[in-house]
Amino acid sequence: MFTETALRIGQHLKDSNATVSVAESSTGGLISANLLSVPGASSYFMGGSVVYTRESRRAFLELETDRLQGLEPMTPELVQEFARAARETLGTAWGIAELGATGPAGSPYGYGPGNSVIGISGPVSRAIKIETHSDDRQKNMLVFTEAALSLFEEVLTHS
After folding, report:
1. Cβ contact 12:157 at 8 Å
2. How far apart are CA 23 and CA 42, in angstroms?
3. What's residue 1's pLDDT?
4. Which residues contact 31 (CB under 8 A, 6 or more apart)?
């Protein structure tokens, strides 16, 4: 679980005295677990939630419905709102969000398995879309997690 990427992220967050919160869907807590695997994570990791259902999103995130109107499911624009909500809900410097379809089936929104969007919200905000073209659920969960960590590290080092 303890990846080199997570170690570098943890060190950067500790050095900059910054905090992070996570809202993840199809990665099922793996992004949070990686961030928490670093010794000293309690200084920067404020919390995370698996927002796998509409009910959990309502319970764990302060999503402003007017900001979501007109946004298509599983798009960079939507995941940015989730990342912003994760950050604002816990008052952290950074928010990470992930929404996706790991497989073997696709999403109810018409996206096939192996699709994910990842967003970072903070002093620098970015979002990416990942397509693996695979229906291997476990492999996709790992690929999406590493993509989220890599994007966060890239944003951190360029902020």
Report:
1. yes
2. 17
3. 54
4. 22, 24, 48, 96, 98, 145, 148, 149
pLDDT value, residue 136: 98
Long-range pairs of 107-116 with CB within 8 A, sequence gap ≥ 24 = 107/73, 107/74, 109/72, 109/73, 109/74, 111/73, 111/74, 113/137, 113/140, 114/140, 115/74, 116/26, 116/27, 116/74, 116/140, 116/144, 116/147
Pick the CATH number of 4-157 from 3.20.20.70, 3.30.420.130, 3.30.9.10, 3.90.950.20: 3.90.950.20
User: What's the pLDDT at 109?
Assistant: 87
Domain regions of the chain by residue span = 4-157
Q: Which residues of the chain, if any, have pLDDT below 50?
A: none
Distance CA 4, CA 38 (A): 10
Token pair in block for residue 4: 């080199």
And the tokens for 132?
């693996």
